Amino acid sequence: MSQRTFQFELPQQASEQQRALVELAELIDTLRGSVEQLAEAHVALAERVDASEAPVGWAPAGHCWRDLDADAARELWAWLIAWTRWLVERYGLAQDLGACWPAHPALVEELTALSVAWHHAYSGKADPDAPLRWHEALHRARHRWQGWDTTRCRHGHHTPRSGDTVWSQPCPDDAERAVTDDIDARRREAPAGPQGGTT
Fold it and tell me: pTM for the full model?
């Protein structure tokens, strides 16, 4: 709050009207300071509310793979790979989801949907039972993965289901190649803009 700006000394012989005006000016100055303090408190409270309602982490605005250009796809791939690694480690899903999932388009779509839903479920704007509904969606998704991953990929190799429990580090070559191929294909398909760039 800023310092009070009203400073005035009445002469000893001041009239009642002058004294009343000075008293009123001092009250107005005090009120101005209180309003400034209230405005600062409002801004601080609004920032706290915004922070509490923000989703956990960052969720991309564009997550429809069919509509992404190369730059947006690169950003979404980086985000999805990091989130999926967290998901697998947190829930112990290495037996259910092979590390070369980026080479399986259906798994990419499913994991994208799960990740976006997860970020919303844990945001301040979600219903209290949203995390529970997300876990039910994850449970159903795990059964679908088995149908989509017909090769039972583990550690980037197409092998029969085994007792492995962790992914290899870093991502297998097949997974990295799938990401690179996807981004390159989007770059080739992008229409040329006025200066040879994408529109």
Answer: 0.55
